[in-house]
């Protein structure tokens, strides 16, 4: 199939076929990062602008590396060093970037829907690198790539997502992606961190972590997003770790022998996950980071109009 989308904004707008194409393309891109010389001329002459209104380590760095490995020119801009601090609007900033003939704008913003607004107004491709609590499509895609690598499929798997669901754009994108690809998703966390009516997205909800991880093929732990919370939604971090933290003992008692442990990062060790689990034999957290580069290479390649048949030589 051909990939015809100009923008990558969320998982809901991607079809099963498009997701499969992205993952297949990422599989091929991953080999580039394993070469002695980690660079191909595929996007030579293209300009990728990384516009991050919020702080980021993994997403920003992996998009930058992805662009460079495809030989594109990559430029980073943050809100604090742009003319937005002088009162320039987001739209005017983006239009000025486009006027410099940027081909792709990778954007992270604290306001949900900001990348969608720009995508409607710009000719350049827009890739959503996380907007508010709404969506983080590239994270969901790298999560799916990691699971598919280890399990061979996404269909009929039980995916447990545990933690601060209400404030997590990763959770929303993972829910949309995994359910679309035929997985069964169960959510767990404090009632104060589970949105009302989220079951309408095709997931089940439990408030006991032991019930959530029982029989799970994948356990995705999420951090508490204090920066997005407007009130106290739990008592103490110690209490949260006791009730909802993933420990080695809890894993031993309730999880499957071949379970995958995942986390989108940053990890708050000793809160949502213990260090011996984060670094343990079931953890594929660093594999997620590795696959993040491959997925973002695939996204830049596909929206830039590369040869879009991932199965061709």
Automatic annotation (TrEMBL):
User: Catalysed reaction per UniProt?
Assistant: carbamoyl phosphate + L-aspartate = N-carbamoyl-L-aspartate + phosphate + H(+)
Cited Pfam families: OTCace, OTCace_N
EC assignment: 2.1.3.2
Question: Which pathway is this protein engaged in?
Answer: Pyrimidine metabolism; UMP biosynthesis via de novo pathway; (S)-dihydroorotate from bicarbonate: step 2/3
Which residues are involved in binding carbamoyl phosphate? Answer: 58-59, 108, 136, 139, 265-266
Q: Where is the Aspartate/ornithine carbamoyltransferase carbamoyl-P binding domain?
A: 6-149
Task: Tell me which PROSITE patterns the record gives.
Answer: CARBAMOYLTRANSFERASE
| A cellular-component GO term for this protein | cytosol
Q: What does this protein's UniProt record list under function?
A: Catalyzes the condensation of carbamoyl phosphate and aspartate to form carbamoyl aspartate and inorganic phosphate, the committed step in the de novo pyrimidine nucleotide biosynthesis pathway.
**Record-given protein name:** Aspartate carbamoyltransferase
Source organism phylogeny: Bacteria, Pseudomonadati, Thermodesulfobacteriota, Desulfobacteria, Desulfobacterales
């Amino acid at each position: 199939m051909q990939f015809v989308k100009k923008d990558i904004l969320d998982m809901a707008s991607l079809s099963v076929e498009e997701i499969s194409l992205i993952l297949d393309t990422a599989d091929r891109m991953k080999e580039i990062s394993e070469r002695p010389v980690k660079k191909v001329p595929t996007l030579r002459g293209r300009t990728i602008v990384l516009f991050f209104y919020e702080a980021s380590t993994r997403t920003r760095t992996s998009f930058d590396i992805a662009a460079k490995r495809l030989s594109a020119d990559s430029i980073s801009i943050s809100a604090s060093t742009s003319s937005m601090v002088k009162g320039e609007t987001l739209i005017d900033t983006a239009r000025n970037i486009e006027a410099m003939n940027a081909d792709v704008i990778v954007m992270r913003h604290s306001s949900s829907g900001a990348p969608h607004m720009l995508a409607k107004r710009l000719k350049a491709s827009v890739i959503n690198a996380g907007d508010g609590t709404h969506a983080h499509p590239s994270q969901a895609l790298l999560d799916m790539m990691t699971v598919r690598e280890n399990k061979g499929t996404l269909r009929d798997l039980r995916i447990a997502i545990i933690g601060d669901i209400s404030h997590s754009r990763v959770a929303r994108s993972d829910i949309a992606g995994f359910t679309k690809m035929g997985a069964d998703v169960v959510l767990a966390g404090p009632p104060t961190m589970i949105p009302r009516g989220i079951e309408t997205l095709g997931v089940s909800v439990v408030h006991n972590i032991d019930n959530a991880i029982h029989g799970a093929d994948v356990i995705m732990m999420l951090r508490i997003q204090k920066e997005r919370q407007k009130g106290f939604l739990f008592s103490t971090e110690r209490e949260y770790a006791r009730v909802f933290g993933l420990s080695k003992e809890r894993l031993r008692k309730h999880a499957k022998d071949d379970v995958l442990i995942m986390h989108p990062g940053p990890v708050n060790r000793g809160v949502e996950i213990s260090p011996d689990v984060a670094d343990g034999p079931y953890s594929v957290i660093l594999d997620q980071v590795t696959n993040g580069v491959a997925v973002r290479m695939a996204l830049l390649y596909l929206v830039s109009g590369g040869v879009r048949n991932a199965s061709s030589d």
